[in-house]
Every structure is written in structure tokens, then in C-alpha cells.
Amino acid sequence: MNLYRSKCESCGDESYIFPDQIAEIKKNDNLALHKYCKEKLYIGAPWFCVKCDASKKDGKRCKISAHLTGDKAKNLIEIRNRGANLEKMGFYLPKDIV
Hints:
The chain is an alpha+beta fold. The chain has one domain (3-88). It contains three helices and four strands. It has helices at 19-27, 50-54, 70-88; strands at residues 3-8, 14-17, 46-47, 62-68. It has a four-stranded antiparallel beta sheet with strand order 2-1-4-3. It is globular, with a radius of gyration of 14 Å. The termini are far apart. 12% of the residues are buried.
């Protein structure tokens, strides 16, 4: 299980980098993240902050901060896969609950 976590030095946003995301990014060379996926990921490797980029800030001040393994990584990947499978079947989970 290769699950990574990134942290932006500008906005402080932390996010997970899932194996299926890496596979999709490698397929599409038009994505801004494509150049960061050419080599094997490691702690300290440069990454790209999508949140900063979306708000017109410099998204290049982000780094991979952790490589998660074991049960926690396995559980997070299984949860993500369940959500992706539901969406493929036409079910959408609520994003904001008021």
C-alpha cells in the first residue's frame, strides 16, 4: 500500500495522495501534477497544492510529508475504493451535511 500525505507550506493544507490518483495522473500529461509523478514518490519530494492553485496562489510550495503503511493506509484506501465504486454505480454521497 503506497499512501502518502502532503503538506503545503503556504496554506498549511494537508491531503492524502492515493495510489489510484497517482495512476490517473501518470496517464494524463496535461495535468499540473504530472511532472511530480514521473519518479517514485518519497518523503520530502516536491508536490503541488491544488487548493493554492485554485485560489490563484503559488501551488509549488508543497511537499510530501509522510508515507503511510499498515492498517491505517489499508483502511483509508478501502474507504476510498468503496466511495469510488458507489459513484460508478450512480450513487453520490452527500458532501455537506447541514
